[in-house]
Amino acid sequence: MEEKRKAMVPKTIGVKTVPVSSLYPNPHNPRLLFDREPLKTLKASIKKVGILVPLTVYRDSARGHFVILDGQRRWICAREIPLDDVPVNEVAEPTLVQNIVTMFQIHKLRADWELMPTALKLELLMNELNERNDAKLAVLTGLPEAVVTRCKKLLSYPKDIQDLMLNQDPDARVKADFFIELYPVIHDRVVAKFDWFSRPRFTEQMLGKYGPDRPIRSVTDFRLIKQHINNARRTGKLRELSNRLKTFAEDKPTPVSHLQIASASVAAAARKLVSDLDKISNAIRHLDVDQYYGEEKLWETLTTFVKVAQKKLKEADQRVQ
To answer: What CATH number is attached to the domain comprising 12?
Structure first.
């Protein structure tokens, strides 16, 4: 796979200077969104010291002009300043697959990138290569495997939802993290069986509840929702959960806490405590008394633990063996 990836990198032709007007953006650039604020900083730098790193380009044999592989932000700034020409590093014209793979390899995934445009190019690459394996796609693109998985989750959403992540206005754009965190909730096997549940409808309802002064203030709230679902499933409270989740979805002001079923939450806490006590008991069971004979703090703590346990057993009317 590594050799296959290397074979997809176009060969370098050379560095030269070309007119800004002879360059065109790459239609397969995984980065479709260029917000204005970061560009202002770059433009100021170019005005002061010029373009220090040449743009990477290839000549489109069908149209005769240069297409940008790397440096579209520099090109945008050069046009706006404006500059007459820019330094470029020309490479051989790539195939469609080479183009996409090269774009990924050059850019990787930078911190200020939006994930949805990257997911769309990944989808095109998957279709061209008929490849769906996350690990292999990670090697080909240079993206972390976890990012490939996240991209594929975004691709599971319908186009109208994807478009919300592609809005040119950053203030109106819905972050990809919202839909990535929502994904485990709407794909939960239990929730999917509720007779009232519709994935598209539920997604729209969650969008309506998301915002600074709304019940879902952070995308991580979906993890709490999933936790309530898991707790209800483990304790057989699915009918009550269905009713609560339906109310939560349909009534905008209803908070996430409405999904908490007391008995389910207590059961979950009890399971965790049992697990913790099992670990403590196992550690005490295998404790070498002679080795720790002089550790007074240990024995004092263990004595306190026994007294607390006996007290709680008595309060619960449990017979101490």
So the answer is: 3.90.1530.10
Residue range(s) defining the domain that contains residue 14: 2-155
Domain count, the chain: 3
Q: Distance (Å, rounded) from C-alpha 111 to C-alpha 141?
A: 16
Could you give the 3-state DSSP secondary structure of residue 231?
helix
| Euclidean distance between CA atoms 32 and 55, whole angstroms | 17
The closest of 256, 130, 88, 240 to 181, measured between CA atoms, is 256
At position 250, the amino acid (one-letter code) is: E
Angle at 245 between CA 239 and CA 251, to 5 degrees: 135
Where are the alpha helices (H) located in 156-198, listed in sequence order?
A: 159-164, 176-186
Residues 8 and 72 in one domain: yes
Mean pLDDT of the chain: 86
Distance from C-alpha of 140 to C-alpha of 162, rounded to nearest angstrom? 24
**Same domain? 29 vs 111:** yes
pLDDT of residue 4: 54
| pLDDT single digits (tens) 4-47 | 555 555 555 557 888 988 898 887 765 555 556 667 778 888 88
Whether 100 and 237 share a structural domain: no
Q: Which helix (H) or strand (E) holds 311?
A: helix 296-315
Residue 206 DSSP SS3: helix
pLDDT, residue 50, reads 85
Share of the chain above pLDDT 90, in %: 44
